[in-house]
Design a protein that fits this description.
4-stranded mixed beta sheet; UDP-N-acetylmuramoyl-L-alanine:D-glutamate ligase; about 30% strand
Amino acid sequence: MIIVLGDIIVDEFIWGDVSRISPEAPVPVVKVEKIDRRLGGSANVIRNLHALECQSAMFGVVGDDEPGVWVKHRLRELGSDDRGVITKVNGRPTALKSRVIARHQQVVRFDHEWNAAIQPVTHQKLFTQLEGMVEICDALILSDYDKGLLTPDFLQRVITLMAGKLVAVDPKPNHTAAYKGASFITPNLIEAAAMAEMEARNEDDHVEAMAKILRDKLALQYVLITRSERGMTLFDGKQCHHIPTMARDVYDVTGAGDTVIAAFTACLTRGDTPLQAAITANRAAGVVVGKVGTATASWKEIEAHQ
């Protein structure tokens, strides 16, 4: 089982077409054709693990509202253990991002969320639940969207609890020091540069230097940096491997980082080497950026994406 702990977000997509400009203001008028929802944020990692046929458990917080009820229902549909999803009743809403998309292009996005830090009592509830599942999990993914759940103190408590287990982190630069002792991190180029306090230059030798600094600074086993059109760089502790992008057509990069960390972790838990796992994660990313919206990649799609 792979546990995902992080900020749960509901991704809402409002699909339509644009054929005219509003007479009220110089903005496009979108004729809505359909609306759909997907698990987003850290919960999108669960979707990706499901697509990879991995058993999972979600830990996080939702609001006492309709989107929060929908999150739990959807997790159960995917067969994911939702006992670690706590419903807050103090007015904190479920994070909801609504995107208006016309002709495969995002027109606007509006967010409904509350980013204040989670209360200590809620952190303790989550920690107690985690303690009860340490023995049965193969890995923990910390999916940090900086929405108030993964505070520095809580991150360190959790990483210490999971000593001896595979701990993966999709990081945010302002929490850099709190990731010390994890197994690996999967930042993008901008995040890696900020965490290493370097310029965000997408050159091989520069990225190698970032990866080595971060591994030493945070006592990690591996560092996997995603580099957009330049693919990925993996530092496995001995050498850096530069993996060219596998993307054929790029329509939407939303959620690609979730796919990378899910695929990399899933491969490591089944016994792949770090390089094999990174190559597979790179292919998975190439699949999902060719789709619109937060998407997933199955083993069949990954194997076909050569």
